[in-house]
Specification:
Elements (H helix, E strand, L loop, with lengths): L1 H27 L15 H11 L10 H17 L16 H22 L3 H32 L4 H5 L10 H14 L25 H25 L7 H25 L5 H34 L1
């Protein structure tokens, strides 16, 4: 029951997160943003949801209809299945290998992106999907090596145990935090790494042929992944006092909000890279650097954990 409550709350919060991004980009660009529906545009998510979910679903003439419907659903299910890992004290499940499940689900979501881009039989959608898949697979390897560095300090793959850590991992891993932020921006296809839809030949990326319900589901999945990555960032690097019932819950929420808005801020201030530079940055710079850091953390902290277990 608690997992259903978390998923429903995240659906609502993601809808308002989209409006928050539009308002935040408006502030950064010295304009209003959405401000007509309700007070200061606060009811805009309701209007957008009603409009998108009541529109007719139109299929491209040569699209593969079963995959055309299944692709967005796979992306949506993978995005919200991650919230099973939410480290709440009311959760009926204790997943001792939660971070490994997180890596498995996030890797499987690539198949949904492929089905979305290929099933619509559009060159633009297919090119966008291929870029998204190559980018996600490349940075998935980099994400794993960055993830294991702070986990070595905890000695567990459980999100609940990471949340109850009594010290700040950021004190021992500032460089890992920097690499992790770069990784989650690329993994979620966010600026300055939004090459899925960032150039004229890609139009709107792999979702170019989707409208109405399909587009809404894909947007909810994308922003849900961003919110989940913000939560994981807070757990991994800023877990101090999170085991406290009242103060810990407040800090937990503040970290999620801060990193979610940080992604909006990055989109508003940084220019877009070139795609070949993005892939070179991953394989030639970031991945070797993260492997070196992982080796350093293993040498420094594995013996420390064994000594005090």
């Amino acid at each position: 029951m608690s997992m259903m409550v978390v998923s429903m709350l995240m659906l609502v919060s993601v809808a308002f997160y989209i409006v928050t991004e539009r308002k935040g980009l408006g502030m950064l660009q010295l304009r209003q943003g959405p401000n007509k529906v309700g007070f200061k545009g606060l009811v805009q998510p309701v209007a957008d949801g009603v409009k998108l979910f009541t529109k007719e679903m139109i299929f491209p003439f040569s699209a593969i209809k079963p995959l055309y419907i299944l692709g967005p659903l796979v992306c949506f299910i993978c995005a919200y299945a991650l919230w099973v890992l939410f480290p709440s004290s009311y959760s009926p499940l204790y997943l001792s290998l939660g971070f490994l499940l997180f890596l498995c689900i996030s890797s499987f979501s690539v198949y949904g992106v492929f089905m979305v881009g290929w099933s619509c039989d559009s060159r633009y959608g297919f090119l966008g999907a291929m870029r998204a898949i190559a980018q996600s697979i490349s940075y998935e390897v980099f994400l794993s090596t960055c993830l294991f560095c702070p986990l070595l300090l905890v000695g567990s793959f459980s999100l609940s145990e990471c949340r109850s850590m009594s010290f700040l991992s950021i004190f021992l891993g500032q460089e890992v935090l920097l690499l992790w932020i770069i990784c989650i921006l690329a993994e979620t296809n966010r600026a300055p790494f939004d090459f899925v839809e960032g150039e004229s030949e890609l139009v709107a990326g792999y979702m170019v042929e989707f409208g109405g319900v399909g587009f809404a589901i894909l947007a909810l999945a994308e922003y849900s992944n961003m919110t989940f990555m913000s939560m994981v960032t807070g757990i991994l690097f800023f877990s101090f006092l999170m085991d406290n019932y009242f103060l810990g819950s407040f800090l937990f929420s503040m970290y999620m909000i801060f990193f979610s808005y940080f992604m909006v801020w990055v989109r508003g201030v940084l220019p877009r890279f070139r795609y070949d530079l993005l892939m070179s940055l991953c394989w030639k710079v970031l991945l070797p650097l993260s492997i070196c850091l992982l080796s350093l953390f293993m040498g420094l902290f594995v013996d420390f954990n064994l000594l005090f277990m």
